[in-house]
Specification:
This protein has 174 residues and is mostly helical. The protein has one domain: Bromodomain-like (Up-down Bundle), CATH 1.20.1550. The protein has a two-stranded antiparallel sheet with strand order 1-2. Helix 2 runs antiparallel to helix 3 and helix 4 packs antiparallel against helix 6.
Length: 174
Amino acid sequence: MKNYDKKNNMSKLITFFWKPHIFGLGIAAFSLLALSAALTAQYVFDMQPCVLCIYQRIPFVINVILGIGIFVMARKGKSHKAAIAVLIAGIVFIINSAIAFYHVGVEQLWWESALEGCKFDPSKIREAAFQPPVPCNIIPWELYGISMAGFNVIFCGIAGIKCVIAGMCFKKSA
């Protein structure tokens, strides 16, 4: 009997989170948490971001806005638009995962970055004295051999796939 209750409670929990308006809040909360972690690393632990780190923050800002928009649209009964916005949020997460994968490649020296900000230009030594550029191949923090960019690949990839699947399911039921 207890095993049945656990399954029933889990089913209720999944059903609760599988509603478009709650899902939208989840997208916004996940993105805010990621931005908070990046800003905490920068301002509390003094880990200065490189250009690719900054680029990886942009999709999170977009998804905070999309997540709040999904919540509002779903609450107003615009479930078809909310489903499309969930799909878009999934694509934004996947794009972020791709940027992070590129960053991991630069960190691991699999390839050189094509971005100007990731390279040190000796002719700009005067500007660098006041605000030194942070090279993209420096790993300021890692856990179990995985850098922040590596975790971003994993988490945004999973979030992106989950959002795409949820968006398609929401669209069918809209």
